[in-house]
Automatic annotation (TrEMBL):
Pathway: Glycan biosynthesis; glycogen biosynthesis. Pfam families: Mak_N_cap. The keyword Transferase applies. It comes from Planomonospora venezuelensis. The keyword Amino-acid biosynthesis does not apply. This is Maltokinase. Monomer. Transmembrane segments: none annotated. The lineage of its organism: Bacteria, Bacillati, Actinomycetota, Actinomycetes, Streptosporangiales. It is an enzyme of class 2 (transferase).
Length: 436
């Protein structure tokens, strides 16, 4: 039976959020034929009284599954059609035509043309979503776990594209349906940056060079990244400026700042309860939060990226491009769309430089000797990023230092929980943030 096959298969997928918890029930809420042999399913999974919805492209094959699709098999004659380039072209065609297929709406951005001829491949790094790369032209991200509402990434990238903003990948189209009466994004298609490297890989290459070199300082070594960090800072300020122009902005007054601090304290308490290793460092965050509350003043707020780190930016031959404006995965949509200080993103990227510097030390024989270099690399790039941010018009005043420090520690608290859940051997990286 289909529901049984899906239960067995879904629980083993990278994007299935409810791993490790028993499934109380699974139901197919919507089943739409997109083309012969291709069905679009929305499936509800009940676990511990909660319900999560996922989307699946179901391939149906009457004969034996060809070898090229065997890894995507769900059951006899059924498979994950995201992996079948013979079928996925229909997604681009339908977006290009602006079709409605049953309750699914395929749309494209006004004035853009979508070429539906390139064939797709699933991007290797499948995580919480599944991305299909069409030729060297488009990337279509299928949001696997569905949260009712317009996805913030689609909302922000479309708004910035309308303003012809720099530093984003051109959006082309999207798929939506109604869930709980709300238009809900199922997928979005953007320009694929075929000739670009992600910031994390570039930063790590620089750190590796530094560790391998006999040079004395980060700025003398072959892998100096600080000019890139500066440009990234400038690009970040420009993206913030565009987001402030495209969406409402506001001011958080002192009372709201104190409420934000209360929320940070709550998250810190929850994190300590979940990850006992954090307990001995908690006083560092508490002190930083206390200082923010003590000097609380008006803070400008706006839409922000929300989960900003080196893995979310790509360097093309000419530019830094910002991706994935979805906010922190797992947070409620309202929180991810809420206005907040752009310094949250600045803090996120500062943390990321620290991550890049330290993560290669974990298994390194000479970790102790290299630590001062790691710290120096991180400091150099963090300050270059901040200088670039200011040069690009980003607001960074003396009075913001206390807030920035507390936002960095709040991000480190989030990272402690993230690493404990997903990559326990990386836990020492965010824990080190409380020592300086
Ligand atoms: N427009 C794009 N062009 C090229 N590669 C991309 C593009 N968008 C995403 N990627 C690649 O996919 C990876 C994950 O993308 P992301 O949007 O951050 O997905 P996720 O939400 O699953 O983290 C990026 O680090 C990058 O390597
Ligand atoms: O990119 P995602 O939206 O999936 O973000 C989540 O995963 C990130 C890890 O890939 C995580 O980022 C943390 O690790 C990065 C190195 O892998 C590092 O550059 C970041 O600074 C650090 O926060 C992110 O926090 C999480 O939300």
């Amino acid at each position: 039976m289909l529901t049984e096959l899906l239960t067995g298969w879904m629980t083993h997928q990278r994007w299935f959020a409810g791993k490790g918890r028993p499934i109380d029930g699974l139901a197919v809420d919507s089943d739409v034929e997109l083309a012969p042999g291709l069905r679009h399913l929305i499936v509800s999974v009940r676990q511990n009284g909660a319900r999560d919805r996922y989307q699946i492209l179901l391939g149906c094959c009457e004969s034996d599954l060809p070898d090229r699709l065997r890894h995507a098999q769900i059951g006899d004659g059924l498979y994950d059609a995201a992996h079948d380039a013979d079928l996925t072209g229909v997604l681009l065609e339908a977006m290009s035509d602006g079709r409605d297929i049953g309750p699914l709406r395929f749309r494209h951005l006004e004035g853009v043309h979508i070429d539906s001829s390139p064939r797709s491949l699933v991007l290797g790094a499948e995580q919480s979503n599944t991305s299909l790369v069409y030729g060297e032209t488009y990337i279509c991200k299928l949001f696997r776990r569905l949260i009712p509402g317009v996805n913030p990434e689609l909302e922000i990238v479309n708004a910035l594209a309308l303003r012809k903003a720099a530093h984003i990948a051109q959006p082309y189209g999207w798929i939506e349906t109604d869930l709980d009466g709300e238009p809900t994004t199922l997928a979005m298609t953007q320009e694929f940056l075929s000739n670009a490297n992600d910031g994390w890989a570039l930063a790590l290459a620089s750190v590796r060079d530094l560790y391998a070199s006999m040079e004395e300082s980060a700025s003398d070594a072959g892998g100096d990244f600080s000019a890139e960090s500066f440009r990234l800072g400038t690009a970040t300020a420009e993206v913030h400026h565009e987001m402030a122009a495209a969406f409402p902005t506001g001011v958080m007054d002192a009372a709201e700042v104190r409420r934000m601090v209360d929320d940070q304290r709550r998250k810190l308490e929850q994190a300590v309860a979940e990850v006992p290793e954090l307990a001995e460092h908690a006083h560092v965050a508490e002190e930083a939060y206390r200082r923010v509350a003590a000097v609380a003043h008006d803070v400008p707020v706006q839409r922000v990226h929300g989960d900003y780190h080196l893995g979310q930016v790509m360097r093309t031959p000419t530019d830094w491009i910002v991706l994935d404006f979805e906010g922190e995965p797992g947070q409620p949509l309202a929180e991810r769309r809420a206005l907040s200080s752009p310094l949250r993103d600045v803090a996120g990227m500062l943390r990321s430089f620290d991550y890049a510097a330290r993560h290669l030390l974990a298994d390194h024989d000479a970790a102790e000797d290299l630590l001062p270099r790691a710290v120096e690399w991180a400091e150099l790039n963090r300050s270059s990023f901040l200088a670039g941010y200011s040069a690009g018009g980003g607001r960074l005043r003396g009075e913001d230092a206390v807030l920035l420090r507390s936002l960095e520690l709040a991000k480190a608290v989030y990272e402690v929980v993230y690493e404990a859940r997903n990559r326990p051997s990386w836990l020492p990286i965010p824990l080190a943030a409380f020592g300086h």
